Amino acid sequence: MSVYTRVTEDDLRELLAEYSIGELEDFRGITAGITNTNYFVDTSTGRWVLTLFEQMDNGSLPFFMQLMDHLAGHGVPGAHPVARNDGGFLSRVQDRPAALVYRLAGASIETPSSSQCASLGGVVAEMHRAVRSFGEAQPNPRGLDWIAQARDRLAERLDTDTAALLDDEIAFQRDNARTRYRGLPEAVIHADMFRDNVLFEDDRVSGVIDFYYACHDYLLFDLAVICNDWAFDDDGLYRNEHWQAFIHAYHRRRALTDAEHGAWPAMLRAAALRFWASRLIDYHFPMDGDVTHIHDPSPFERLLRAHREAPPALLDAP
User: How many alpha carbons fall within 13 Å on the CB side of residue 281?
Assistant: First the structure.
């Protein structure tokens, strides 16, 4: 989350006239994250989060709103969009598509405990079970084709070694898409479940937020994204206890397949590649904004190199 577009008090009063959630009391920008403009909005009846979508149009946004509504209806603790007076979920602010969601209790955790990881494992498994009955789908907007295009765009910005690693990994992932990944369980996944997108109250997950990269992809890819962020500390050291707490809680609710075990080392690399490429783009071609937060791409390069040498196991024996 970031602030690229400045929202005024008048903008918010005009927006709130389209909803039945009370009068504006306070608002402030949120500086964490990368892609969209986000504000906390307090009214006389509750607390909300306003998102202005900086890189999406109305064509893809109903998918995300319907997904969040579907998951909330199945008891998954997540961001739930607020319906307008006319029943729709989308509005416009500063000529950008926008949505209000319920502000969840709790806070994100920079250094999660193993018990918090276990709580998340159960929630992610229930999410993966709940999407079986979700009838909508959309492809991964940051899949291999996008990564290859990003590589071309970065051509003049990369040194020879970095470019060679990108090329080799893209080729490796294309080969796996034709072979090892075939037959893996697929459904709609979150695809961006970093620590700042999960809220906790004590050791319990109170909410999952920021579904705006959700897409139809391998369930295992969701797990690899989570492993790469939750099971590694800021120095890149692997925390097996944390990962095993997560994956055992997950496996009890949604059993992992033999194919997923076989594809796990390659999928860890796929998840590292995806976020390395996107952060290279954000670093070398930053968006203009009032308050922006750009992540360093180098941790994902180091993670990718580590996974190419010695990837951690998916599931240890109990």
Answer: 17
Q: How far is CA 162 from the centre of its chain?
A: 25
In which region does residue 117 sit, left (phi positive, over 0), alpha (psi from -120 to 50) or beta (all else)?
A: alpha
What is the bridge-based pairing of β-strands 198-201 and 204-208? antiparallel
- Give the ranges where 76-113 is alpha helix by DSSP (H): none
Distance of CA 243 to the CA centre of its chain: 18
For the chain, the first-to-last Cα distance in angstroms comes to 38
Counting Cβ atoms within 10 Å, is residue 148 exposed (0-12), middle (13-18) or buried (19+)? middle
Contact criterion met (CB below 8 Å) for 242 and 117: yes
151: its two tokens: 């590589």
What would the pLDDT profile of 142-187 be if each residue is shown by its tens digit?
999 999 999 999 999 999 999 999 999 999 999 999 999 999 999 9
Neighbours of 231 (CB within 10 A): 22
Among 154, 120, 131, CA closest to 227: 120
Which superfamily is assigned to 114-309 in CATH?
A: Aminoglycoside phosphotransferase (APH), C-terminal lobe (3.90.1200.10)
CA angle, 38 as apex, 37 and 44 as ends, to 5°? 145
Question: Which CATH number is 9-102's, of 3.30.200.20, 3.40.50.720, 2.60.40.1930, 3.90.1150.190?
Answer: 3.30.200.20
CB–CB of 105/82 below 8 Å? no
Strand-pairing partners, residue 188, are 216
Angle 290-293-298 from CA coordinates, rounded to 5°: 150
**pLDDT band for position 287 (cuts 50, 70, 90):** confident
